[in-house]
Amino acid sequence: MANAFIAPDGHPRCQWCGGAAEFLPYHDHEWGFPVDDDQRLFEKLCLESFQSGLSWRTILNKRENFRAAFHHFDFNKVAGFDEEDVQRLLQDAGIIRHRGKIEATINNARCAQEMVVQEGSLAAFFWRYEPDSASLPAPQTQTTSPESIALAKDLKKRGWKFFGPTTAFAFMQAMGLINDHSLNCITRERVEQARAAFQRPS
């Protein structure tokens, strides 16, 4: 079957999830399912930023280490990190030891706090950028969109760092703002059902 990975259960999935064994459970249970939990949204924002220039496999394999290092991405705790924490994280071999990305995560945690005050929640803000599904091109044929460009621009204006249009689009794919599973992927229908039942935050 073209543009499909046939999983061990004999059913087709998105082609990319055949690239590594750890991709399949992530694909089947997380990628594309709608999320309205602020802590999970913030985690994904941070991990997408850390991925910049790297593979998602690298980040996925280190995800539990990142969670331990950043208090499970509780942005109210991360916002209080100081230079001593930066130095601690730079010595942590379990994560990506990139000062700019570490400092951006702390900066973005403070921006997240401000966003909650201004918007009510991170979810309420991000779900405003959900595109009209009827206007979307074929799945996995783009790496940015008008919505991801607008989202990145808005975040930059609000002081967020390490979050451009491509990162924004990957975030939207993963957090279910769009269903970008391949048309022949068995998980696509499950995601569509989850999105139909999902109550958009306001």
From TrEMBL:
Does the keyword section mention Transport?
no
Instruction: Report the record's Gene Ontology biological process terms.
Output: base-excision repair
Could you list this entry's UniProt keywords, alphabetically sorted. Metal-binding, Zinc
Q: Which GO terms describe its molecular function?
A: DNA-3-methyladenine glycosylase activity; metal ion binding
Q: Name one Pfam family in it.
A: Adenine_glyco
* Binding-site residues for Zn(2+), renumbered to this chain: C14, H27, H181, C185
This chain belongs to the protein called: DNA-3-methyladenine glycosylase I
Lineage, opening ranks: Bacteria, Pseudomonadati, Pseudomonadota, Gammaproteobacteria, Oceanospirillales
